[in-house]
Amino acid sequence: MAYHVPALLNESIEGLDIRPSGVYVDVTFGGGGHAREILRRLNNDGRLIAFDQDEDAILNAIDDSRFTFVRSNFRFLKNYLRYLGVDEVDGVLADLGVSSHHFDDAGRGFSFRFEGELDMRMNRRAPKSAADILNEYPKEKLRDLFLKYGELKNAHKIASSIVTYRQTKKIASTNDLLAILEPFAFKDREKKILAQAFQALRIEVNGEMEALTEMLTQALLVLKPGGRLSVISYHSLEDRLVKNFFKTGNFEGTLIKDFYGNVETPFEQVSRKVIVPAEEEQQENPRSRSAKLRIAEKKK
Questions:
Q1: Please, which residues have CB within 8 angstroms of residue 3's CB and are 6 or more apart in sequence?
Q2: What is the DSSP string of 70-103?
Q3: Are 97 and 89 in contact (CB under 8 A)?
Q4: Does any domain span residue 127?
Q5: Which of 54, 94, 116, 185 has its CA 20 to 30 A from that of 229?
Q6: pLDDT, tens only, 29-73
Q7: If you average pLDDT over residues 17-22, what whole number do you get?
Q8: Are 93 and 12 in contact (CB under 8 A)?
Q9: The domain containing residue 129 runs over which residues?
């Protein structure tokens, strides 16, 4: 089975407008699908630096003198580039989705489809697993994470049920969480509700929203004028941050105008409308259905 089938592969790479001798960064290496396509378009002077915090991704590292693999969270983008002697880059690509490899590995606990340890850490060196959070967080903090990151209307009741459950039994497996969620997973919307709850927990475990804002902020700093940023997101929380940042240069979406009423933003939007997979791709790769691509160019 393939580690991961990249969504919007051609569209996201075309969006980078690759210069053959340029320096590019793939901040979400995973199975290396996007990285291989970038390398294919570079000449001998080009360079690609890839980030991934998951030890499993190292197995996919590419044997190519133009390629450098960094095992790190992309929130440390600027520091690692400086360490590698790179001050500016021509493009940054981010595919923010959880890889098929993670969803299909029962032992990682990312999916409600399999029984397994409730881990959900992208970086298994991180201190807190999903089980730790469910067993340790106070009720109010649990409610907030399910409301904010899962957009679940029953967040308060779910948090209360978690606290009640853990008083008699430690929460350790995906089945434990499914037992807690069962009264709230109405049959007509069961999969959606379970997906939202697992998503909320995964985002909290990995600090995904904070990491995304830090990466985007640093990407702007390291991009050359005219450099491109190509970002694929998979849920509305991520997409909103990317959309706001590209449009306004901040994450709140606050329009800042100059004396003449022109919007001050560091980017030119390459794709005015969000790019989504064609019907054919959605059928061939169902996990691409929620993918949304936005592309921006740093103003010269």
A1: 30, 31, 32, 60, 99, 100, 101
A2: E-S-GGGHHHHHHHTT---EEEEEEE-SPPHHHH
A3: no
A4: yes
A5: 54
A6: 999 999 999 999 999 999 999 999 988 899 999 999 999 999 999
A7: 98
A8: yes
A9: 122-206
DSSP 216: H
Distance between CA 66 and CA 157 in Å, rounded?
Answer: 52
pLDDT at 3 over 70: no
Query: What DSSP string runs through 283-296?
Result: HH-GGGTT-EEEEE
* Cβ-proximal residues to 263 (8 Å cutoff; 6+ apart), any chain: 248, 255, 256, 257
Tokens linked to 72: 């790190």
Please count the structural domains in the chain: 2
Taking the whole predicted model, whether its pTM rises above 0.85 is answered as yes
Q: Where does residue 116 rank: exposed (0-12), middle (13-18), buried (19+ CB within 10 A)? A: middle
> Is the CB of residue 229 less than 8 Å from the CB of residue 89?
no
Q: Assess whether 264 and 216 both reside in one domain.
A: yes
Q: Which domain CATH number covers 236? A: 3.40.50.150
Which is it for the CA torsion 246, 247, 248, 254, positive or negative? negative
**pLDDT band, very low/low/confident/very high, at 1 (cuts 50, 70, 90):** very low
> What is the percent of the chain with per-residue pLDDT over 70, rounded to a whole number?
94
Instruction: Name the phi and psi angles at 51, rounded to 5.
Output: -110, 140
